[in-house]
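User: Please predict the structure of the protein below. I'd like the answer in structure-token form so I can feed it into my own downstream comparison script.

Assistant: Understood. Taking the following sequence of 305 residues as input:
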Amino acid sequence: MKNKIVIMLFALMVMGFTSCDKKDDEVGTNDAPVVSFPDIIQFDLKDKPTLDDLKAKLSEYITDDYTAIQNIVIESTTDFNKINLKKEKTIEIKGKVIDDGTNSLGEKGEVKSTDFSFKLELFYSLKQKTLIFDAKEYTEWVYVSLDKGRILGVTEAGESRQGLDWDIAFHRYNVRLNCGKSGSGEGGAILMEGKVGQEGWDSVLEAPAKGYKVDETLQISLEHAGRQTYAGGSKVITGGMGTGTWVIFNHDVQQYVVTNQIFVIKTAKGKYAKIWLKGFVGDDNKGGHITMEYMLQRKNSRKFE
């Protein structure tokens, strides 16, 4: 008799738990999503974001159950990447977060939603890039576009690339900018006195308004300790045997050593960039392997922050 009573009590307990579980799984009992947006949300346009990127950012302000971007509906859509920030930096965003009442069994319930509205403040943050490439040949210049962040091509040592698509070029430790004797652009360079290494890099927050020097005529080598020619190049960003502003051949250790000096340059189209030439010697222990870190100001501003 006692065994039967125990079994009956156990069955009643199981039925009770099952009833509770079913109650939790009932459809149509959901609450509206909880949304807590600030009045203004900042949104960085530097990587050409999509509408889904904005939804992903909004999910940070929504309770965990509704953070999936398919729960977020934005009613005021726009192409962020076509907005002229000179005319419009803040836009209003309206939409809703939806809960379709789906329970743990996948059954649909009552659809509930919460409307939202806020200001989206648009801006471009600056990109800091590092390029690593070879410019070890004595017979050629290697041309770089800072805007595109890549190598464009080469010319022979005595020639110069035409046009405004390039900003800086390297012939081993020789450097040229798109200006003066090297090109038709608006380039130029200035050495930031006392700005060296990471501390110097971090402290250069604004490009100088003036003082940039354009390229002049340089004498460059066409082979090791051999023939030379004349070509346009910078007399601000220099390297050499025992002398130079960015890389120097140290006779004591018989090796090239970078100075970690920070420079600010103007690009072919007159924009500002700060550069840090961090490496010249490659794994083969030979010169001409360039490591360049730079930050390009894309707006009509001299600020690097």
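That's the full token string. The chain has two domains: 28-123, 128-296.
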